[in-house]
Amino acid sequence: MQLGLMSSSVMVRVACWMLFACLCFSMMNGIVRHLGGVIEPIVVVFFRCLFGLVAMAPFLLRAGFNSLRTENPMLHVLRGLVAVVAMSCWFYGIKLMPLAEAVALSFTTPLFSSIAAVILLGEVMRRRRWTATVIGFIGTLIVLRPGISEFTTGSFLILTAALLMAVNHVMVKYLTGKDHPNAIVFWLVFLVLPLSFAPAAAFWQTPAGGEWVWLISLGMIATLGHQSMVRGFALADATAVVPFEFMRLPFVALIGFLAFGEKPDLWTWVGAAVIVLSSVYITHRESRQGQVISSAKSTNIEP
After folding, report:
1. Distance between CA 272 and CA 156 in Å, rounded?
2. Which residues contact 6 (CB under 8 A, 6 or more apart)?
3. Gap between the Cα atoms of 293 and 165, Å rounded
4. Taking residues 163-188, what's their average pLDDT?
5. In the chain, how long is the greatest CA-to-CA distance?
6. What are phi and psi of 107, to 5 degrees?
């Protein structure tokens, strides 16, 4: 769909899907932060996938179980291995640092995705994309302020999670168009569930009372967030959709302030703005390149 030809009604639907997804992911992060004080994060990862799998039932009943077919089983397994480490790093990182700062650092994922695409998919990365990536890295340094503020274990874990999520995105990019969206979401949580069970068993804590409510809510909200995001991307070009993702920062900053009394400092906002601008630019370039390639293929011209 061409951005310029998009109707206002479509943009309203995109905005609704993406803002709801961002709200879901922000609530998910708030729940993870809350539970991190009483339950080991790896145990939270296990229950997130367990109840996330349950939340997939309505989508499977609607689309049918044939939507789970795949010709790329080993890639799904590899993605599951990457995801369990990424999710664990993310959940532990959220436990150790302010929510808004963690989300600001997570905006480096599109930057890492560009580099991962070069390494894993052999894509060509030209001057403008390298420049945008470097600017995004500068934004990361503004948030971290090395030499001025301490580079913490939490910062390391969040950046590691962002890098692994970028690798995950490259795999999703390959799978999209080959597998049904239900398969991409289902096989992830289905595979992460047993992969996370062994380490979770080593730190096992049986949830008590209200903790079950939080864990069930976590799985349901995370699945709703992913499904909403998929629908947003299905309606419009990436350039129209990606900017909405950055609404996670004000959402999570509000949750951090109301629930945990956290106040992001000025440099977190400045660094996040730099990362956002560079990420949007890279996404814009990717979308334009994709349109050029599609146009070339439709006219049998080599791009």
Report:
1. 17
2. 236, 237, 240
3. 26
4. 84
5. 63
6. -70, -5
Residues 232 and 277 sit within 8 Å (Cβ to Cβ): no
Amino acid code (one letter) for 88: S
Torsion of CA 198, 200, 202, 203, to 10 degrees: 180
Torsion of CA 44, 47, 48, 52, to 10 degrees: 180
> What pTM did the predictor assign?
0.79
Q: Which residue bears the tokens 């999570």? A: 252
Nearest-angstrom CA–CA distance, 30 and 37: 12
How far apart CA 255 and CA 6 sit, in angstroms, is: 33
- Whether the CB-CB separation of 179 and 70 falls below 8 Å is answered with yes
Q: Is 299 exposed, middle or buried, given 0-12, 13-18 or 19+ CB atoms closer than 10 A?
A: exposed
Q: For position 238, what pLDDT does the model report? A: 54
CB 35 within 8 A of CB 94: no
Alpha helices in the chain (DSSP H): 8-35, 41-55, 57-63, 73-96, 99-106, 109-121, 127-144, 153-175, 181-202, 210-235, 238-245, 248-260, 266-298
- pLDDT by residue (tens digit) across 85-121? 999 999 999 999 888 888 888 878 777 877 777 777 6
Identify whether the C-beta of residue 276 lies closer than 8 Å to the C-beta of residue 51.
no
**What string of DSSP letters covers 146-215?**
BTTB---HHHHHHHHHHHHHHHHHHHHHHHBTTB-HHHHHHHHHHHHHHHHHHHHHHT-----THHHHHH
pLDDT value at 55 more than 60 = yes
